[in-house]
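Morning!

This is the sequence you dropped in the shared folder:
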Amino acid sequence: MTEGWERRLRDHGFRITPQRQLVLEAVESLRHGTPEEILVEVQLTASGVNLSTIYRTLEVLEEVGLVTHAHIGHGPPTYHAVDEDTHIHLVCDRCGTVQSVSGTVAQDFVARLEAEYGFRTDISHVSVHGLCVTCKDRAYEAEADDQL
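The structure's back. Tokens below.
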């Protein structure tokens, strides 16, 4: 579990509650989870927790810097722990897998945006859509079969 999470909450004037601990544990366990997925994970331990509690808790955890979110698809945001290295999400549009890659792969791009446009980029919310290696290979195989 994220070190110092209790202190961070207290330093920002929030109480330590079982719900906050369960939500943070669920986010860390799932690594990337929508509020609905987090709810399912939390309800394994605390069946009385509802979706509005999850949303309110995620808002608090994000405010104190313990979690952040990214918009990986067209649905709800996906949350992950902040203590992970900054990363970019690679989203396969065919099978839906999400792969995290180090934000360092975008260093040149981010530097160019700042140098040419004065734009400082926050890549923690970035997702790139396309085809994962498995789906890409299947697409090439299908194209080759069509050409025969």
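Headline: The mean pLDDT is 89.

More detail when I'm at my desk.
O.
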